[in-house]
Design a protein that fits this description.
Bound molecules: heme C
Largest sheet: none
CATH architecture: Orthogonal Bundle
Order of helices and strands: HHHHH
Number of strands: 0
Helix content: 55-70%
Length: 105
């Protein structure tokens, strides 16, 4: 029946879209584009933050504290990222990238 294949395609599309949430590679691109001017984000350059801006490597070490703060950064004043075009999916991707910065234990 034709509607079965439509349902299957929709289910696969939904699954595909879900799988993209928390994509570290996309997060890395977003960070390089939007956050890098203030936050250190590349482990090769750990001190490249402006002023007292916390580095993303630091956040990676303190994820219990920072996970929620990363996901809510655009909804809490006065952080500048509120003025950027950043969706919750973008923040999930950024969080996925920051998770890759976690040092091996
Ligand atoms: C113009 C500089 C600037 C840019 C660009 C910037 N930040 Fe920040 N960020 C800061 C400063 C300064 C702080 C520390 C003060 C504060 O918490 O607002 C900070 C703090 C944070 C914190 C910790 C906030 C908290 O509640 O402790 C997170 C998470 C964060 N930034 C994420 C991001 C992300 C994600 C981006 C890119 C989408 C970004 N920032 C872009 C300057 C910037």
């Amino acid at each position: 029946m034709w509607w079965r294949s439509v349902a299957l395609v929709l289910a696969m599309a939904a699954f595909g879209a879900r799988a993209e949430v928390g994509d570290a590679e996309k997060g890395r691109e977003l960070v390089a584009e939007m956050c890098a001017r203030c936050h250190a984000w590349d482990p090769e350059y750990p001190w490249a933050s402006i002023g007292s801006t916390p580095s993303f490597m630091w956040m990676a070490r303190k994820l219990d504290f920072y996970r929620e703060r990363i996901l809510s950064v655009t909804s809490r004043p006065p952080h500048i990222a509120q003025r950027f075009d950043v969706s919750i999916e973008d923040l999930e991707n950024i969080l996925a990238y920051i998770e890759t910065l976690k040092p091996a234990e």
